[in-house]
Design brief:
flat; mainly beta; Jelly Rolls; 3-stranded antiparallel beta sheet; about 0% helix
Length: about 150
């Protein structure tokens, strides 16, 4: 197991852990102390090599929180992962979730361009495994248009 801590700078934070290779991450969020931790949330929704996300809400600014990361497969040679904690849990960019995107109008014969980045984006609802929308568990943002 690996333990990390962060001090909340906002009421909402995302905790994302990406397993690398065959690492199948499980991530758990705690408050309290090392001697008396209290589990707040746990994420184990994906398989090896994908992203586990906890969208923590209602955190107390200035409080230290603890993150436990471990491999569903136990020990072994492949124990590599990446962890990222950032403020704004559950929010992300306005176009983070496919269902929350506002479509831009596009006239027939016209053109449209989109720009932006996926900083703070989550993987929630981003892909359908095995389909053309399969993003291999990578956080993405959405853009849409309607013809007029």
């Amino acid at each position: 197991d690996a333990w990390f801590s962060f001090v909340a700078t906002a009421a909402d934070h995302n905790v994302e852990v990406t397993g690398l290779g065959t690492y199948d991450a499980i991530v758990e969020l705690f408050e309290g102390t090392c001697g008396a931790p209290v589990s707040l949330d746990c994420a184990d929704a994906t398989v090896a090599g994908e992203v586990e996300t906890i969208a923590a809400t209602g955190l107390t600014i200035g409080t230290t929180y603890w993150v436990r990361v471990y491999n569903w497969n136990g020990g072994g040679a492949d124990q590599d992962f990446e962890i990222c904690v950032y403020g704004g849990g559950g929010g992300g960019p306005v176009n983070d979730l496919c269902g929350s995107v506002t479509a831009d109008p596009l006239s027939v014969g016209g053109s449209i361009s989109f720009s932006g980045d996926n900083t703070g984006a989550t993987i929630a609802g981003d892909y359908v495994p095995g389909s053309t929308l399969d993003a291999d568990g990578m956080a993405s943002v959405w853009h849409a248009f309607t013809t007029t």
